[in-house]
């Protein structure tokens, strides 16, 4: 019986967890609720993926109303993978939050932090599981509103300003998206993704349909920090609490990428986006610009959180690059990088959060010799950094391997060269941190530091170890990504 309701339970569990957290004024109880909710959600995500693998597409009708009249939760290999990513990262990070949140956030706000944490997870999973365009907007706003609060709870006085800046940009993005959805409703008379796909396939492109496509692209582009719509991201990541930054960097932009891919390939269809409008060419240009521009900016950043934030913009560029090539191999590269980037960026931000916990700063000027006194923490950062570069034996190599192969399959040798060249820029910004942390003598302040408590250290080690494990044996992640790519290219069945 429970298995039948898994599509809705993975949304309801973190949602009711958020409700319980909001009703308590004790941070320790709220943390326990968050831990239980995320573990149960992870168990549900694993079970849901197993069901999809063995049974195929799962359709769940909300309230007994059959689609397209009622809201449908529809799970296939593509969104089952995304749900697993969100649930896994959320569950791994919660133990880390027990110590980090206690240091960075006032005690009377701890319960609210965990409430927003669980609401964010609810929204992100909801975006992935829903089969309704308007329902996706609702969950997009749930996750966004929770995200604004998470950022505002940061330890710096500028956290509130960063949250406000993100609120403005996020509201613009949501407005663009809902205008596009409204136009689609006017044209087709439906909001259900499956029904939309069928009706759009029989519709010729006119100005209204083109406008809907453009509004949706820009709206989601703002949410996923597509260059040059990324201006909100560096400050948001830099000023949020360390736990919040790790969650957002590992999941939020990935779910937005999934939503874009879903609408492009399953709703509009490959023939539409390739044949009628030059959107893929535009995405190709923007993704290449992101890969180089953001990486170059990261090289000159002295705040390591902002450095990693610009790195995220570049990594999103790689994901969108796979979309722009519009082949099964390229889309596999996008989806496997979606999973791999969650691991590498999660490990990197957790490691830097541990440095902030011990040192009180993430400025390169104050991190001299930190690697010598916090070897496990910075060792995990090095593993994550090597993954960002794409060194063989790490998850980053797997992602870029698929993208390079896809470029060669299209005969675009120049694009394969650009992928490798942009990856080499990561050597410089990762190398700057490694040089300061390991090859500089610690000053008096840093000499007394030690690796953080186990609750912070173990989640960091888990994600760093996953960067190596899935880089050596990519059969699971690449296999799931390939299956998801085939589902997306096949459209809604």
Protein architecture, described:
This protein has helices at 6-23, 27-55, 77-104, 110-129, 133-152, 158-188, 193-201, 207-223, 233-239, 242-268, 270-275, 279-299, 304-325, 328-359, 370-373, 375-389, 395-409, 413-439, 444-447, 454-472, 475-490, and strands at residues 58-61, 72-75. It has 493 residues and is mostly helical. It has a domain at 278-493. The protein has a two-stranded antiparallel ribbon. The longest helix is centred in the C-terminal third of the chain and has 32 residues, at 328-359. It starts with 5 loop residues before the first helix and ends with a helix. The mean pLDDT is 85.
Strand numbers in spatial order across the main sheet: 1-2
Instruction: Return the string of H and E elements.
Output: HHEEHHHHHHHHHHHHHHHHHHH
> How large is the count of helical segments?
21
Specify the biggest β-sheet.
Answer: 2 strands, antiparallel
Poorly predicted runs: none
The coarse silhouette is globular
**Intertermini distance:** 25 Å
Work out the oligomeric state of the chains in this entry: single chain
Mean pLDDT: 85
Strand element count: 2
Helix content: over 70%
Proportion of beta-strand residues: under 5%
Rg measurement, Å? 21 Å
- Helix/sheet category: mainly alpha
SSE layout and pairing:
Elements: H1 6-23, H2 27-55, E1 58-61, E2 72-75, H3 77-104, H4 110-129, H5 133-152, H6 158-188, H7 193-201, H8 207-223, H9 233-239, H10 242-268, H11 270-275, H12 279-299, H13 304-325, H14 328-359, H15 370-373, H16 375-389, H17 395-409, H18 413-439, H19 444-447, H20 454-472, H21 475-490
Antiparallel strand pairs: 1-2
């Amino acid at each position: 019986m429970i298995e039948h309701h898994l599509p809705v339970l993975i949304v309801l569990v973190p949602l009711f967890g958020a409700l319980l957290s909001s009703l308590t004024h004790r941070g320790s109880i709220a943390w326990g609720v968050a831990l239980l909710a995320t573990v149960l959600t992870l168990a549900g995500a694993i079970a849901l993926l197993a069901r999809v693998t063995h049974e195929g597409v799962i359709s769940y009708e909300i309230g007994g109303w059959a689609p397209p009249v009622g809201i449908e939760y529809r799970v296939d290999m593509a969104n089952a993978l995304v749900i697993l990513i969100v649930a896994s990262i959320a569950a791994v990070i919660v133990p880390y939050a027990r110590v980090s949140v206690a240091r960075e956030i006032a005690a009377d706000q701890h319960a609210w932090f965990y409430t927003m944490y669980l609401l964010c997870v609810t929204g992100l999973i909801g975006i992935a599981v829903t089969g309704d365009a308007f329902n996706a907007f609702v969950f997009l706003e749930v996750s966004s509103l929770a995200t604004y609060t998470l950022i505002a709870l940061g330890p710096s006085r500028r956290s509130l300003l960063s949250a406000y800046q993100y609120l403005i940009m996020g509201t613009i993005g949501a407005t663009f998206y809902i205008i596009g959805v409204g136009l689609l409703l006017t044209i087709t008379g439906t909001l259900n993704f499956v029904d939309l796909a069928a009706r759009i396939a029989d519709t010729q492109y006119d100005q209204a349909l083109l406008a809907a496509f453009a509004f949706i692209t820009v709206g989601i582009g703002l949410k996923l920090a597509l260059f040059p719509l990324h201006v909100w991201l560096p400050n948001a990541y830099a000023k949020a609490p360390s736990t919040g930054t790790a969650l957002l960097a590992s999941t939020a932009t990935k779910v937005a990428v999934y939503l874009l891919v879903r609408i492009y390939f399953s709703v509009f269809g490959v023939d539409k986006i390739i044949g009628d409008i030059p959107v893929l060419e535009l995405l190709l240009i923007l993704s290449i610009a992101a890969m180089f521009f953001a990486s170059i900016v990261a090289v000159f950043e002295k705040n390591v959180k902002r450095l990693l934030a610009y790195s995220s913009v570049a990594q999103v560029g790689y994901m969108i690059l796979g979309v722009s090539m519009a082949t099964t191999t390229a889309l596999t590269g996008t989806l496997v990088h979606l999973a791999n980037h969650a691991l590498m960026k999660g490990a990197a931000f957790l490691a830097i959060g541990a440095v902030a916990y011990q040192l009180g700063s993430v400025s390169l000027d104050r991190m001299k010799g930190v690697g010598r006194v916090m070897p496990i923490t910075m060792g995990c950062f090095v593993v994550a950094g090597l993954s960002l570069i794409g060194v063989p034996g790490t998850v980053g190599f797997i992602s870029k391997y698929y993208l390079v192969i896809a470029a060669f399959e299209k005969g675009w040798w120049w694009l394969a060269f650009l992928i490798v060249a942009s990856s080499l820029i990561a050597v410089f910004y990762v190398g700057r941190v490694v040089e300061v942390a390991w090859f500089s003598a610690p000053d008096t302040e840093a000499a007394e530091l030690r690796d953080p408590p186990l609750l912070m250290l173990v989640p960091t080690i888990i994600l760093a170890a996953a960067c190596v494990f899935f880089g050596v044996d990519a059969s699971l992640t690449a296999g799931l990504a390939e299956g998801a790519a085939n589902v997306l290219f096949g459209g809604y069945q």
